[in-house]
């Protein structure tokens, strides 16, 4: 019975940590850049695009270059967001006996 109570307490603590983690992720913002900073995309921790800045020098008849730069900046920001979330998750789960490769949903 003592072990069951300990497990329940640990589960409650983990739930609190997960809620805290989700709040931090929601508040997080990352910027992705491409074209040497000519295109900047801002994402929140959920991967939603919150901002887009395009240097006026890119606006021309050839839209394909601009489209490629926007995609590259978005992917850069998304990669940074995933890295930050994984780093925060590792901090939060340090010391927990989790199976290798187990990931929590964000």
Automatic annotation (TrEMBL):
One of its GO terms (cellular component) is cytosol. One of its GO terms (molecular function) is DNA binding. It is found in: Cytoplasm, Nucleoid. InterPro entries: YbaB-like_sf, YbaB/EbfC. Keywords: Coiled coil, Cytoplasm, DNA-binding. Gene3D superfamilies: Nucleoid-associated protein YbaB-like domain (3.30.1310.10). It comes from the Bacteria. It holds the Pfam family YbaB_DNA_bd. Residues 4-31 form a coiled coil. Homodimer. Belongs to the YbaB/EbfC family. Binds to DNA and alters its conformation. May be involved in regulation of gene expression, nucleoid organization and DNA protection. This is Nucleoid-associated protein VW23_008400. It comes from Devosia insulae DS-56.
